[in-house]
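Please, structure for the following, as tokens.
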Amino acid sequence: MTKLVYEVVRHDGGWAYRVDGVYSETFASHTLAAKAAHAAASKQQQSATTEVIEYQDKQGRWHVETAKGTDRPETSVQDGSPER
């Protein structure tokens, strides 16, 4: 089983979450980025129908794959307290 770790980090003048080296959009606060990371991680674990997915890798290339609805990754979120 694949394991994905969502890391909440400072990024581009705000906060974002990073998965396998790829950043989300930038959020204005740590709290908003952490909420988005938890929501994305939770959604990744939901069993669903088989679907075609698109994602971007570390090199910026886009991929299109078929994801089985029962083949879900294990996810976690690392969202340590923001630096003050």
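The chain has one helix and six strands. The longest strand covers residues 3-11.
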